[in-house]
Specification:
about 325 residues; alpha/beta; Enolase-like, domain 1; TIM Barrel; 2 domains; four-stranded antiparallel β-sheet; about 35% helix; globular
C-alpha cells in the first residue's frame, strides 16, 4: 500500500542571458510542484508564458496551490496518469500550465524509469536580425540537420530575401522549419510561399491570421502546414486537411501531458510529424518535455532549443521559495 503523498508549491526566478517579451528585467519566473511519496519524487514546472498563456503567473499560483491541496487528499493519483487531470477532477477550468505541472509531477512520481539524459534530435532556433540569422546559419556545426526561423515579422519582400539568402548559404542537408505566428493574410502568405524554394522547407507553422483559411492556403500552392496556436485553448482534436504536415505541441500552452498524448495519437493516425516544443520553461520543464519527446516522437527533432536563454541550466535551491506545503500546519 502506498504511503502518504506530500506536496510543496515553490516559486522560482531565473535570470536570462537575453530578453524575453513579457519577462521584466531579464528574468523568467514560474512555479514548481514538488511531490514526494515512499521515497520517490515528482517535479512539475508551471511557467505561464507572458503574451501567450491565457493565465497570469498569479492566477496559475492560486490554481496550483489548490490542486496540490487536492492531490494530497487523493487515494488514487494513478487515475491522473491514465485519463488526465481534467477528467479526474471533473473538467473544471484549470489553467493549461497548471495541468502540465500536475500531470508532469504525477507522471515522474509514478515512473519506474529514472530520469536520464538520452539525446533526441533538436531543431536549432536561429533568431535575431536577418544578418544575425545568416551568420548563425554559416556557423552551424556539421551535425545540424534542421533549423527554425520565425517569419512574418518584416515585409514579405524582406522575408523572401532572407529565405533565399539562407538557401544559398546552408548546406544541402539542412532543412528549414518556418514559424509564421499567424502573422500574414492569405494573399501575403501565398506570395511568400511561391517565391521560396519548397524543397528547402519542412513546413510552416500557422502562417495565417485566420486559421480557418489554412486548408485553402495549402490547396493554393502553399507550403506544408503545421498547427501550433490552433492546438491551444481547446480540448478537441483538430480537423485533418490535405497539406497538413505536422503538429507542434507546447504542453504548457496546449493542455498538459495527457492532451499531448491525445495529439500524438492523432498525429500518428494521420502520418503527421509530431514536434514537442517548449514555451521557455525552466530546466525542470525542459526535462519533462525531453522525456515526452523520447516517448512520443523519439526520431523527430524537438523544439527544445531554449535553455540557452537562461544563465543557469538548473534551478538553484536558493531560487526556490515555498508558497505552500502539506508538511506545514
Amino acid at each position: 500500500m502506498a504511503g502518504a503523498l506530500s506536496a510543496t508549491v515553490y516559486q522560482w526566478l531565473l535570470p536570462l542571458t537575453g530578453t524575453l517579451p513579457g519577462c521584466p528585467q531579464g528574468e523568467r519566473q514560474g512555479l514548481l510542484l514538488w511531490l514526494e511519496r515512499d521515497g520517490k519524487k515528482g517535479l512539475g514546472d508551471c511557467a505561464p508564458l507572458p503574451g501567450f498563456s491565457v493565465e497570469t503567473r498569479e492566477q496559475a499560483a492560486h490554481s496550483l496551490v489548490e490542486c496540490a491541496q487536492w492531490l494530497v487528499m487523493q487515494p488514487d493519483i494513478e487515475r491522473i496518469q491514465e485519463v488526465g487531470l481534467l477528467e479526474v477532477i471533473g473538467k473544471q477550468p484549470i489553467p493549461s500550465s497548471v495541468v502540465f505541472a500536475v500531470e508532469a509531477a504525477v507522471k515522474q512520481l509514478l515512473s519506474d524509469t529514472p530520469a536520464g539524459r538520452s539525446m533526441i534530435p533538436v531543431c536549432r532556433l536561429l533568431a535575431g536580425s536577418h544578418d544575425d540569422i545568416v551568420q548563425a546559419a554559416e556557423e552551424l556545426d556539421s551535425e545540424t540537420r534542421l533549423v527554425k526561423i520565425k517569419v512574418a515579422r518584416q515585409s514579405v519582400v524582406d522575408e523572401i530575401k532572407l529565405i533565399q539568402r539562407l538557401d544559398s548559404v546552408l548546406p544541402e542537408r539542412v532543412k528549414i522549419r518556418l514559424d509564421g505566428n499567424r502573422g500574414w493574410n492569405l494573399k501575403d502568405a501565398l506570395i511568400f510561399s511561391r517565391a521560396i524554394p519548397h524543397q528547402r522547407i519542412r513546413f510552416i507553422e500557422e502562417p495565417l491570421t485566420d486559421a480557418e483559411e489554412l486548408p485553402a492556403y495549402a490547396a493554393s500552392g502553399g507550403l506544408p502546414v503545421a498547427l501550433d496556436e490552433s492546438l491551444q485553448g481547446t480540448q478537441t482534436l483538430p480537423d485533418y486537411f490535405t497539406g497538413l504536415a505536422a503538429l507542434v505541441v507546447k504542453p504548457t500552452l496546449s493542455g498538459g501531458v495527457h492532451r499531448c498524448q491525445q495529439l500524438a495519437d492523432f498525429a500518428h493516425k494521420h502520418n503527421l510529424e509530431l514536434v514537442i516544443s517548449s514555451s521557455y520553461e525552466s530546466p525542470v520543464g525542459i526535462g519533462t518535455l525531453t522525456r515526452l519527446a523520447l516517448q512520443l516522437a523519439p526520431h523527430t527533432a524537438s523544439g527544445l532549443d531554449t535553455l540557452s536563454i537562461f544563465q543557469e541550466n538548473r534551478i538553484p535551491r536558493e531560487q526556490l521559495h515555498a508558497l505552500w506545503s502539506s508538511d506545514q500546519p
